[in-house]
Design the sequence.
């Protein structure tokens, strides 16, 4: 059998940092409120002119260097993003040209905050099917570009960033399984209400491009869906909770992360947490957390990792990985 293994990981974060104290200057909020409700202390914010592809490129180059893979070796590039530089070409195509990997397959996957898990699953399935050997998978976002900075319900939650992995075909696992789900019936709880068909709103700030969220409802759905998908993942592999070494969750809210950890009977010292530093970077969050844990030496080869995410759509999913 053929499996995909993570050969290298990388990160790309904007330099500029916005703290909760900074936010207090322009919306009625407090460091105490944000930290106690979400765990967030600060987030990175793209500079003017800095794009999703800029962050993706940084993460991709770092992952390729760690994997010892050159652009010519890439068979495919999959980018999870809901904030592409352009409507088209895809961010994956823009990235491909920057890397000098012209010729290989390249496309974006839009699954909101589950974008990286979806992209990883697509890449894994191409490798398992024998249709690709070396794939660059990126989760990259500039969510702050579509925030309403006067809406304290949303603007305190998000940040910008990108993470990447290089997957290589191997006879040993690797990615053991991925599990994807969606429920398009809950659109209004978390969405961005404008677009090519609906139109834009020239009279509104940012032409009406903004994240709208009913936070407490999303919270409940997220916890329930994540509980179900982590159960499903263990069951599909005939594993026990105690077999897991690390939980690498989507970094939206520390309380959601803690709920999933509790479901898995995992102490928080076996959970990778970056939400305090990064906020919610949507598709960027899981690969950023993974890269940090790999580079800090926490995650070791041979360990069992559970990745999961939940986002607008709704979309949710998981990946079980023998690192
Ligand atoms: N500062 C101060 N007060 C605030 C702020 C703020 N930044 N934001 C909201 N409040 C107020 C509200 O107005 C409300 O006041 P009211 O009771 O007078 O009306 C009060 O705080 C409580 O609001 P709730 O929404 O009930 O607070 P909750 O405890 O649910 O926390 C939060 C809100 C942090 C948004 C939480 O619900 C959450 O994290 N939800 C999930 C987010 C998520 O996971 N999203 C999925 C991924 S995102 C993606 O896919 C793009």
Sequence:
């Amino acid at each position: 059998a053929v499996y995909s293994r993570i050969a290298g990981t990388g990160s790309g974060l904007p330099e500029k940092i916005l703290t909760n104290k900074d936010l207090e200057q322009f919306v009625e909020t407090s460091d105490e409120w944000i930290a106690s409700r979400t765990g967030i202390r600060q987030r990175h914010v793209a500079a003017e002119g800095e794009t999703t592809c800029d962050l993706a490129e940084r993460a991709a180059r770092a992952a390729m260097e760690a994997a010892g893979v050159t652009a010519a070796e890439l068979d495919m590039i999959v980018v999870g993003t809901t904030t592409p530089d352009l409507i088209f070409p895809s961010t994956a195509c823009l990235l491909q040209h920057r890397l000098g990997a012209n010729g290989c397959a390249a496309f974006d996957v839009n699954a909101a905050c589950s974008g990286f898990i979806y992209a990883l699953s697509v890449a894994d399935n191409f490798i398992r099917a024998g249709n690709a050997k070396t794939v660059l998978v990126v989760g990259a976002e500039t969510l702050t570009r579509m925030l309403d900075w006067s809406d304290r319900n949303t603007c305190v939650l998000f940040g910008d960033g990108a993470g990447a992995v290089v997957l290589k075909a191997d006879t040993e696992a690797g990615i053991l399984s991925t599990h994807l789900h969606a429920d398009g019936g809950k659109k209004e709880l978390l969405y961005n209400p404008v677009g090519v068909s609906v139109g834009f709103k020239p009279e509104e700030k940012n032409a009406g491009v903004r994240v709208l969220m009913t936070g407490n409802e999303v919270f409940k759905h997220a916890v329930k869906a994540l509980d179900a998908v982590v159960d499903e993942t263990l069951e599909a592999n005939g594993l026990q909770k105690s077999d897991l070494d690390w939980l690498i969750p989507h970094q939206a809210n520390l309380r959601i992360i803690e709920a999933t950890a509790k479901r898995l009977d995992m102490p928080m010292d076996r959970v990778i947490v970056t939400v305090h530093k990064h906020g919610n970077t949507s598709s960027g969050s899981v690969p950023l957390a993974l890269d940090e844990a790999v580079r800090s030496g926490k995650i070791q080869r041979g360990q069992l990792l559970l990745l999961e995410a939940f986002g607008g759509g709704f979309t949710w999913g998981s990946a079980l990985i023998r690192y």
